[in-house]
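FIELD: query
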Amino acid sequence: MMKFKPNQTRTYDGEGFKKRAACVCFRNELEEEVLLVSSSRRPDQWIVPGGGMEPEEEPCGAAVREVYEEAGVKGKLGRLLGVFEQNQDRKHRTYVYVLTVTETLEAWEDSVSIGRKREWFTVEEAIRVLQCHKPVHAEYLKRLRPPARSPTNGNALVPSRPDDNCPNCPLYVTPSPQGSALPPSRR
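FIELD: result
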């Protein structure tokens, strides 16, 4: 079953890229195990949880909201890994953050509505799983390791430094009952 959001407003930047946000979710601060979720389009394939930004939403808030909806986890938002582009068919620009999971829900929005699943993988296993059908998502995880030859993998647009693009976002973000992951002062 495919995920459908009737009231979703797609947002685009000045260059025509769809604005997206995602989180690489780790079981703990050792960053050895990453959480992947089943794709809504292809339930037999795994993806990094993430999705479109809503109007006036900051990238960090969108990333936390998407992880809550798609993976059913809450946690401590960490550094920005980078901003990744997918040009071929979709023209997406995705802000990707690290999130250390502190709470895992038994049932969550996408598990109930579309039967989405989640599973923990080692970083190496996740890269292998993602490489075949979501190579851009595999690049998110490759960014975790120090580069072998160059300071960038060619996909990221900004350096990976914590809090640069979202200085007002709190480190701990919990979605409100109304569904917004933004703190009350930012809604």
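FIELD: remark
The mean pLDDT is 78.
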